[in-house]
Specification:
Radius of gyration: 21 Å
Helix content: 40-55%
Number of helices: 14
Shape: globular
Distance between the termini: 22 Å
Order of helices and strands: HHEEEHEEEEHHHHHHHHHHH
Oligomer: single chain
Low-confidence stretches: 228-235
């Protein structure tokens, strides 16, 4: 997900953690309860989008991933995150949910069930929320923290002016603090870019111009744009660091299972520039008979 949406969504969840925890708990069928945000660093190579502890009966961990683009292999990632989150938190029950923000994020393997083997020796179930199929009214009713997602539904896209008025009215309700209202309006503005054209987004901006000026998320993204070159340099450095960790981790596991990799294999691994391509290979080490078989998907 782009950094703009990543920053916006995380700020939105931080401000309304209870709304999100209740929404996700209902989706996976676990009891509601007080929510606490947990560390998302699960291992040297895994970092979840969000992780909550919900104090229901019984207590549950909720693992959340949010996607705005489509790519195969997400169920495998969800399983790895789920297992790592459980291990990192004393074996607590962990339920996973992926929230797809727009139709372009859908993928054919996101069925809600991942099975391994024939017949299956492992079945992993996870929740899938396709925001565009949700009811605008239901998202508005779920709490102010979910209201920014209401503009991403198909229903809202068919009548964007009416949708933005409904969202604005929800934020201006008597039970929404003024500061929170301004932050959520800023989040709504940025999320609109996922489903609306530039002219429509600009109309939203004009509608909420004064409010956006007071939004810390709005100001943050403006600063991000002003310093884009500097940030891109830093991000490239972080990406290279993550890539090196993923590559080293895979080589350690692979060497222990398959022996030292041939020079040609090392060259193929060195040529990979996306750490997300290496992470799934570590899980396949135990099933591969040779290095060639392990990296056949690269």
């Amino acid at each position: 997900m782009s950094k703009t949406f990543d920053v916006t969504l995380n700020a939105m969840i931080d401000e309304t953690l209870g709304d999100w925890a209740d929404f996700l708990a209902d989706r996976v069928g676990v009891p509601r309860g007080p929510a606490v945000a947990l560390d998302t660093d699960l291992s040297a190579t895994l970092q979840a989008d969000r992780l909550f502890r919900v104090g229901g009966d019984p207590p549950t961990l909720l693992h959340l991933e949010m996607e705005s683009t489509s790519h195969l292999g997400m169920p495998d990632r969800m399983l790895r995150y789920n297992v790592a989150a459980t291990a990192a938190n004393g074996g607590a029950l962990t339920r996973s949910v992926v929230v797809l923000l727009r139709p372009e994020a859908n993928a054919s393997d996101l069925t809600g069930v991942l099975e391994r083997g024939t017949p299956p020796y492992l079945t992993f179930k996870y929740g899938v929320v396709r925001v565009w199929k949700e009811s605008t009214a239901a998202l508005l009713a779920a709490g102010p923290g979910l209201a920014p997602l209401a503009i991403l539904t198909n229903e809202s896209v068919r009548d964007p002016d009416a949708a933005i008025e409904k969202v604005h009215k929800r934020f201006r309700g008597s039970n929404v603090p003024e500061l929170l209202s301004r932050q959520l309006i800023g989040a709504t503005f940025f999320l609109a870019g996922l489903r609306y054209n530039n002219a429509q987004v600009d109309r939203f901006r004009l509608r909420f111009d004064m409010t956006l000026e007071d939004s810390t998320s709005y100001q943050l993204v403006l600063r991000m744009g002003a310093e884009r070159g500097k940030l891109e340099g830093k991000l490239e450095g972080k990406l290279e660091g993550k890539l090196e960790v993923a590559r080293s981790f895979l080589l350690r596991l692979g060497t222990k299972r398959l022996g030292p990799p041939p020079v040609a294999i090392l060259a193929r691994l060195q040529a990979v520039t996306n750490p997300d391509l290496l992470e799934p290979l570590a899980e396949r080490v135990l099933d591969a008979a040779t290095w060639d078989e392990l990296v056949s998907g690269l």
